[in-house]
């Protein structure tokens, strides 16, 4: 996996922590790159982190934390507003200010459960396409990015991971409104490598395609969000096999709040005090004013109303839409006057945060 990531993302994305004057060599390493991730209908510049590793003989000595802090500062200085990763462990990243950012749900169902009734199955047929040409797929996928929270605007390397997850190209099918890529059936199971079915027509065509494998497999597996449309339409036998969480860490709170989008037709303001022990520049009082789906931040300009109070990890969950303001308030992670909690609830409402790209 390390060699493949190095080849895909480039060796210049890999950072190594070496111990001065020691023969131990590399104490820790990680890969990171920048991309856009969509929240509230707008792209936010983020740092993606993968392959975090510490020499087993040196674990517990603070080397992993030292390397991560250096990565976060580098990304902040280069303009990233947020850092995202898939964790192997929560406590380590929680101490660095990461909070739960969103989910990835792994669903499965027997092919027959995806076979819609005849009156609902009229749709343009899918045709085979070139899985090594992601340009038309990106065009189909782009409108979907603005509909939810958490979807990344894929780099070339991420497209390769999505369409060639095991090194070989998946079988790609598409029509004019969507696409679906599947891996060769294995052990009576068909796995969807990637899919974008944004319209009713493409959704019905995709489900009909998957149902057509009933003679070859017993189950079809795919990834999606908690409100996945295939899961909503599927019949008997569908299961949620696994639910994973990815983490987010705000690097520049002002930049992040002014980059993301907000609900249309909402014009209001909210105030909150933020605590960030690792990046002191993020700590302080914020006044967020929203109009025409855009936000403007005023620092240290306290208004007449009482401000809410929140830590950086809980703020990450609020920002991405993974947890609502009221949920955080009930959990004791967001404190403040109920009026301000309601304002934050309205500003950060939206689709559940999820991301299909595992890195």
TrEMBL record:
Gene3D superfamilies xrefs: 3.40.630.30, SCP2 sterol-binding domain
Q: Which Pfam families match?
A: Acetyltransf_9, SCP2_2
Q: Which SUPFAM superfamilies match?
A: Acyl-CoA N-acyltransferases (Nat), SCP-like
Q: Which residues form the N-acetyltransferase domain?
A: 1-133
User: Could you tell me what this protein is called?
Assistant: Acetyltransferase
**What species is this protein from?**
Azospirillum picis
């Amino acid at each position: 996996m390390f060699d493949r990531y190095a080849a895909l993302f480039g060796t210049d994305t890999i950072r190594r922590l070496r111990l001065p004057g020691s023969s131990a060599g590399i104490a820790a390493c990680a890969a990171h790159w920048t991309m856009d991730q969509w929240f509230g209908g707008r792209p936010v510049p983020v740092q993606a982190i993968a392959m975090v590793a510490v020499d087993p003989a040196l674990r517990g000595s603070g080397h992993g934390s030292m390397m991560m802090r250096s990565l976060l500062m580098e990304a902040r200085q280069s303009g990233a507003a947020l850092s995202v990763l898939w964790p192997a462990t929560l406590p380590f990243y929680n101490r660095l200010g990461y909070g739960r950012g969103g989910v990835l749900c792994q669903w499965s169902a027997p092919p027959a459960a995806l076979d819609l009734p005849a009156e609902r199955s009229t749709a343009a047929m899918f045709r085979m396409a070139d899985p090594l040409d992601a340009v038309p797929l990106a065009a189909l996928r782009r409108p979907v990015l603005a509909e939810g929270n958490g979807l990344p605007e894929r780099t070339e390397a991420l497209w390769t991971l999505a369409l060639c997850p095991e090194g070989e190209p998946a079988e790609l099918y598409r029509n004019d409104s969507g696409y679906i890529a599947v891996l060769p059936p294995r052990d009576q199971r068909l796995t969807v490598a990637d899919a974008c079915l944004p319209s009713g027509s493409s959704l019905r065509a995709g489900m009909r395609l998957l149902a057509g494998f009933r003679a070859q497999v017993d189950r079809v597996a795919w990834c999606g969000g908690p409100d996945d449309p295939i899961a909503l339409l599927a019949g008997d036998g569908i299961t949620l096999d696994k639910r994973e969480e990815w983490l987010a860490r705000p690097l520049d709170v002002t930049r992040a709040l002014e980059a993301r989008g907000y609900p249309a037709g909402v014009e209001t303001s909210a105030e909150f005090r933020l605590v960030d022990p690792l990046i002191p520049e993020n700590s302080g009082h914020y006044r967020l004013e929203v109009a025409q789906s855009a936000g403007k931040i005023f620092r240290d300009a306290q208004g007449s109303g009482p401000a809410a109070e929140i830590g950086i990890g809980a703020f990450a969950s609020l920002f991405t839409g993974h947890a609502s303001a009221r949920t955080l308030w009930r959990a004791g992670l967001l404190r403040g006057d109920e009026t301000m909690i309601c304002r934050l609830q309205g500003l950060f409402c939206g689709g559940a945060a999820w991301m299909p790209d595992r890195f």
